[in-house]
TrEMBL record:
<feature type="domain" description="Rieske">
    <location>
        <begin position="4"/>
        <end position="114"/>
    </location>
</feature>
<dbReference type="GO" id="GO:0051537">
    <property type="term" value="F:2 iron, 2 sulfur cluster binding"/>
</dbReference>
<keyword id="KW-0408">Iron</keyword>
<keyword id="KW-0411">Iron-sulfur</keyword>
<protein>
    <submittedName>
        <fullName>Rieske (2Fe-2S) protein</fullName>
    </submittedName>
</protein>
<dbReference type="GO" id="GO:0016705">
    <property type="term" value="F:oxidoreductase activity, acting on paired donors, with incorporation or reduction of molecular oxygen"/>
</dbReference>
<keyword id="KW-0479">Metal-binding</keyword>
<dbReference type="InterPro" id="IPR017941">
    <property type="entry name" value="Rieske_2Fe-2S"/>
</dbReference>
<dbReference type="GO" id="GO:0046872">
    <property type="term" value="F:metal ion binding"/>
</dbReference>
<dbReference type="GO" id="GO:0004497">
    <property type="term" value="F:monooxygenase activity"/>
</dbReference>
<keyword id="KW-0001">2Fe-2S</keyword>
<dbReference type="Pfam" id="PF00355">
    <property type="entry name" value="Rieske"/>
</dbReference>
<dbReference type="InterPro" id="IPR036922">
    <property type="entry name" value="Rieske_2Fe-2S_sf"/>
</dbReference>
Amino acid sequence: MAHYYVAEASSIPEGDHRIIEIEGRSIGIYNIKGEYHALANYCPHEGAELCKGPVCGTTMPSKVNEYIYGRDQEIVRCPWHGWEFDIKTGKSLFSEKVRTRKYALEIKDGQIHVIIGA
């Protein structure tokens, strides 16, 4: 496993993200309500730069004719075709078999490190 320093935690405010490069990998680092997550900047559908898509929420299970919005700021939507992924897990919202790579992170002394090979 290799640890790569990528940013000071304070430089990515809550609700924001940053795209970084590590050894040819493009990775999005997200701050969701004070928790940091790292996703491959790659949509498995057509290869778009997923982390350049909007961060939003989604509709939650509900009764017919009822609309409940939830999970605000936990979903990233592919900028090309709108496929949606859970930033915390990398899984698509429509199938657990479709996902983008999730990377492990370590926050140490206010510094964010991405772990490759975990």
